[in-house]
# Entry
Amino acid sequence: MPGLIGEDDDGVAEIMRGEETQILGVLPTIGQAGIACLPGSHSKWAKIEDGRIAGFTTAMTGETFAALRDHTILGRLMTGDGHDTVAFDAGLARSQQGGGLLHHVFGARTLVIAGRVSEESAASYLSGLLIGHDVRSALTSYGRDRTVHLIGDERLCGLYGRALAACGMSHEIASHDAAALGLARIGELASWT
# Structure
């Protein structure tokens, strides 16, 4: 598959290389209309209309998390690798407040310094913050009137599902073999000569 190229609502170029195959694999589950979300280093959000990808956007959520954790002052305060649901939920809650993402990110540092988030929980807080901003931004673009179909890594889909539930959104986690299903559908639809 060659991938897809498009533009966001403001005319900025967007690309998709591989995720379209995963979406195609779960399209029978999505049906004629819905939203697909593929969490990851570069999370993809796609609007499905008339059984087709009608538009999509990308957010560098996972890569931003890794860069902030591994290469900024925030990382010096993060000691835990586990997942703290309470801290994650606190990050989700903060993402819906005023001040903007960059201000909120700095708060991940000051909350540790103030003793309100532990060093072991700081990464979970930051994850909730970034995923919360990603989800809220996508819902602003794609609306809240459709089920979100999560495709990808089970753990990440679970975190995005938690964020969607916090926003009052319904969601479904798609089959873990979406890419294989997509390739099979391509094989069925392709005309081989």
Q: What stands out?
A: The CA atoms of residues 85 and 124 lie 7 Å apart. The chain has two domains: 4-60+144-189, 61-131. The longest helix spans residues 122-142. Residues 4-60+144-189 form a domain with the Nucleotidyltransferase; domain 5 fold (CATH 3.30.420.310).
